[in-house]
Amino acid sequence: MSQQITSQVPALTTHFSVLLSPTPRGARLARLLAVEWMRDHEVPYGVTEASAQVVAELATNAATHGRVTGRSFRLALIAREEVLRIEVTDTRRESMPRIQQTCPEGDSGRGLLLVEALADRWGTELGPVPRKTVWAELSLPPRS
After folding, report:
1. Least buried of 28, 81, 84, 90, by fewest C-beta within 10 Å?
2. Low-confidence ranges of the chain (pLDDT < 70)
3. What pLDDT is attached to residue 66?
């Protein structure tokens, strides 16, 4: 009787998660922490720059539209071999993000347009009540 033994090499996955206050300061800190984590994990410069902008937009939305007094928002970064996933979770499930028509003279309303332009994919997931997660994925170049 012959047995064939196979082994699978697990995919390289690294993860970062932090709770932040739903304030402009918390949104700014989200971006700074994300950039530092990506640099520490040698995420390529172009992906880091685009991801930093995506984090800034999603964190600002969580601090502005997803804010509930006394409840934090969560930033998570998950890097796999081929993709970097950014997740921002807040506690305003009823306030789902959507791309809006913007006024050329307006100061706001362009964040999700930037996320759509910079990310390869993005969307939302409902979590346990009262949570929702807005996520974006950016492709990573193959490691040599």
Report:
1. 81
2. 1-12, 100-109, 144
3. 78
Count CA within 13 A, CB hemisphere, residue 13: 8
Q: At residue 1, what is the residue type?
A: M
Specify burial of residue 56 (Cβ count, 10 A radius: 0-12, 13-18, 19+).
buried
The confidence score (pLDDT) of residue 101 equals 65
Backbone angles phi, psi at 25, to 5 degrees: -65, -40
Take residue 120 and report the two structure tokens written for it: 């390869």
Q: Which pLDDT belongs to residue 118?
A: 97
Distance CA 28, CA 33 (A): 9
100-138 as b/e: b if 16+ CB within 10 A: eeeeeeeeeeebbeebeebbeebeeeeeeeebbbbbbbb
What pLDDT score was predicted for residue 6?
Answer: 43
